[in-house]
């Protein structure tokens, strides 16, 4: 299984190049983004994310938002699962243009992109899943968590956060929105940047606490 996993990971970048997708990395200098609001772009789609999503479980009709969706690599991986909608929130117009081209090439239909600062995106009530690949500094993560808390107050539900390279984990936990779930590490060298940490908001527990 490990050998198969490694083969899939090696084949993935070759495959997307052959199909004409642009998932290449991009630095903040090239993108002309403010480092206080953004981090460099790197693709996190592919076999590793597929394994994580299978482990998490995706029910029919679920909806996921990808904060810092970049060129859409992770978004296209999400489209392999029964999400009714996949929304990419991205600050860079240039990256969105590339992502939209990639999605057209892949004929992905349940995808849309929103050009905005993640801290300002508050239309969160429809979502059951949230994804981040360390897309921005902790100050922005704090605002995102506050927006999620407001959404859960309006519509209490189970909400799962998948966070790759969870640099701002302390910010996530201090928000009180999520409890830490399972930890998944990928890659032969097992670097910190290949860690996926799963966080869950338990709607039933929140309801019980409010009634108590």
Q: State the helical fraction.
A: 25-40%
Number of domains: 1
Order of helices and strands: HHHEHEHEEHEHEEH
- Low-pLDDT stretches are none
For the record, the CATH architecture stands as 3-Layer(aba) Sandwich
Task: Walk me through what this model shows.
The mean pLDDT is 91. The protein contains eight helices and seven strands; from the N terminus they run αααβαβαββαβαββα. The termini are far apart. The protein has one domain (2-211): Rossmann fold, CATH 3.40.50.150. The chain has a seven-stranded mixed sheet with strand order 3-2-1-4-5-7-6. The chain is globular and about 45 Å long. 39% of the residues lie in helices and 21% in strands. By secondary structure, the chain is of the alpha/beta class.
């Amino acid at each position: 299984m490990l050998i198969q996993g490694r083969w899939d990971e090696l084949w993935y970048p070759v495959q997307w190049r052959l199909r004409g997708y642009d998932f290449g990395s991009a630095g903040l200098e090239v993108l002309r983004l403010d480092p206080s609001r953004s981090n460099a772009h790197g693709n996190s789609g592919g076999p590793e994310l597929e394994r994580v999503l299978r482990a998490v479980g995706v029910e029919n009709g679920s909806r996921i938002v990808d904060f810092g969706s970049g060129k859409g690599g992770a978004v296209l991986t999400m489209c392999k699962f029964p999400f009714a909608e996949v929304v990419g929130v991205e600050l860079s117009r240039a990256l969105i243009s590339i992502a939209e081209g990639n999605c057209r090439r892949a004929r992905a239909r349940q995808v849309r992109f929103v050009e905005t600062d993640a801290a300002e995106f508050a239309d969160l009530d429809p979502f059951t899943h949230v994804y981040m690949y360390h897309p921005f500094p902790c100050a922005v993560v704090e605002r995102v968590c506050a927006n999620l808390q407001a959404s859960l107050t309006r519509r209490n539900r189970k909400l799962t956060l998948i966070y790759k390279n969870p640099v701002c984990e302390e910010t996530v936990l201090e928000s009180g929105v999520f409890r830490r779930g399972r930890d998944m590490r990928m890659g032969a060298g097992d670097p910190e940047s290949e860690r996926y940490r799963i966080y869950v908001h338990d709607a039933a527990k929140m309801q019980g606490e409010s009634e108590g």
